[in-house]
Amino acid sequence: MLDEGGECSYDPLRPQALFLREFRVGFDDVLNKIFAWWNGATIGTLFTIAKRGRFVGTDEIGNKYYEAKDNSSYDGRKRRWVVYEGYADASKVPADWHGWLRYTFDLPPTEAPLPRRAWEKDHLPNFTGTPMAWRPQGSLAAEAKRPAATGDYQAWTPE
Known about the structure:
Elements: H1 15-35, H2 43-52, E1 53-58, E2 64-68, E3 80-83, H3 95-101
Antiparallel strand pairs: 1-2, 2-3
Pfam families: NDUFA12
Region (Disordered): 135-159
InterPro entries: NDUFA12
């Protein structure tokens, strides 16, 4: 709404507007925590972690790893799980943490880090289906210009 002087009386920096903006973001976050299991932890998961879990560590990506406080699983081992940073994708778990999650290692990488070899590269998640996916030369999805025909190919024509 315009004032008599032709200026707008709405000021987005007013405290009420800031409060409403924060409430809207907070409400979206609450909805995500209730329904969006693929993007972090839901409220139920956070409740289970608070009640039954023990924080073990965080990897370089930001994934958080937990272990059950008691041996409540069917095989007598403490259950282990990960809460992903961002979108839930199992390929985001580095090899050392994957070994701990699958009971290959008894101690987590925070207590017994694996020795790094000189030839090892840093862990990367699977980029299939993303713009960062590898596209080999000659692929239709490759962004590079296709090489010119060499002339050794002769198209078939029906007689």
